[in-house]
Amino acid sequence: MVSDTGSLLTNPQLSSKQNRLPVSTPLTTSSLFSVGAPVTIWIINHKGIFQYIEGDVLSGLNTLPGEVVGRSIFKVYADYPEVLDSIRLALSGEKSRALINHGQRIWEYQFHPFQGTQKNLKGVIGISFDSSPERQLWYQEALMATAAALRKARTHGEMPSLIVEQLQKLLRINQAALVVGSPPGGPYELIFSWGDWDQICENNEPITGLLTDPLVINNLNLNNRFIENYFPQSPGPSPIYGSPLIAHDETLGALWVGRHKPFSAAESQLIQGVAEMSASALQRAKQHELTQRHLERIAALHSIDQAISGSFNLSLTLHIILEQVVSQLDVDAADIFLIDPDTQQPTYAEGLGFRRYQPQMGISQTREGLVWRVLQKRELVSIPNLQKDAPTLVRGGMFSVEGFQSYYGVPLIAKGKIQGVLEVFHRKPLRVDNEWFEFLNTFGTQAAIAIDNAALVENLRRTNLELDQAYQATLEGWVRALYLRDRSTEGHTQRVVERALKLAQAVGIPDKQLVHIRRGALLHDIGKLGVPDKILNKPGPLSAEEWILMRKHPGYAREMLEPIEFLRPALLIPYGHHEKWDGSGYPEGVKGTRIPIEARVFAVIDVCDALNSPRPYREAWPENKVHQYIREQAGTHFDPQVVSTWEKVFQIPD
Known about the structure:
Number of helices: 24
Strand content: 15-25%
Distance between the termini: 117 Å
Radius of gyration: 46 Å
Helix content: 40-55%
Shape: rod-shaped
């Protein structure tokens, strides 16, 4: 039972809880239904005596409305036991309904008990309306037309205008508005208005209060707190009808319509049917779009993961992250500040979406204070409406230049260490939900991981560089040790290294192998450390026995270098550069392409430089004689193809 008869009159189809609405002035049935409309409404007291009645449903009973006031409903409907049974149920406190035939039409009766101020049964409100087949056919055709219109919508955002357009065709409404809920427990938002209410969406605050539980009314009297608060521009008096948008027991919002003449019960029923259909369509569309958005966000995170794992360029990775932030969060701009490891100050790293702001020109103290606020709090800083919540920010600096109205800052934290700040900006006040915040934090986490990974890579790169420098210094130390034993080779090693690298590139040795060429060239004579000084520094030609000892130096080089893993690929030159193309070389006497290409390249460079340099036992050869010798030895000592390339690379004259 209900205690508010005025609100019950507004919608006989819904429960009393859904219809409870404070009314500033009494409602009358004459304001609800026009005379001659296919509907009747009455009030009987707790004894079943008519107190009020209006409508034409009694015409089939050969009775006028004025003739039944003061009479018992049990006598008026004595020939309709199904109606009497429903009335008895209503007088016991239960809502009831019945269908009867009279006047060659089918009528539906609904009975709603209501309470007095002492919570006792005061009486019953009865409503009857035309439910004949042709009326039902009209209703079904109207809903089918609405369903067809909704199917045209590609997104849920296109549906409100289609819904209202269909109601305007069916009912000739003059104004309409659609209210949709935000996250569970949050306020409702007026997202669409039309007709006489066309402007009420602009600059409208979130709707709270009565609309957090959408209501249904049909009220001509605009002297009403709800109407004044939310529809102040309604030209009145006009009836306004509202129906909740409910799908799968979830209240999504409300549909409000109005026009300059009253709604009949059948029309009110149609509005409810359209609202139910619209709620289901909106929910399906939103679920589809939510699924699509989740897929897009998964793809966005995947692209960021690929950027983090596949690129050592932090600037590029941060740019990719910001592209996804702006796209997926639907904001106008975003940037990232990093903590400088030396000064521990926030430093601009990357930005996207700014029109005129130039970060290299510096940031204002106010802006810097905002960044420090995020860093010090180590949590999200949210200012959804800068004009309202932080007006000093929008009066100058970047916010004024860019016209930003919303700001969010997220600390970038990885492994408990704060790396910087991710900021997002929008040029209108933002209304966002929990999912939006979660995704913003996810982007912040991804950015922090990228920064941390970049730092690890940079540290690793620096460590590798230092290690490589240590390796190089060690190798050069070995070469200097060889110089101390054999002064005649001083400068020889440096010359052959650079020339060997140049020729190696020309013959097509991959760049990644050049480091081994360099090391091998540096150490090509390292095995001579095992040759006795009297042989190494002999001023004249070596004897046959001394040559046997001298030719052991490639083997000594292998014994020295092979145990050292990072030098093993470089061993091809120290061990093989004395082999000859025809197989007459040493230490193994291999020939042709069985000799490693690295050794074949270096053999040409080594012999050329050695002949062009003085030795204790001979003078240096002239260049033309050296060039002639190299050409003559092509196919015997040297690889002919390497010699041909050598001539082109070093532009050897004919």
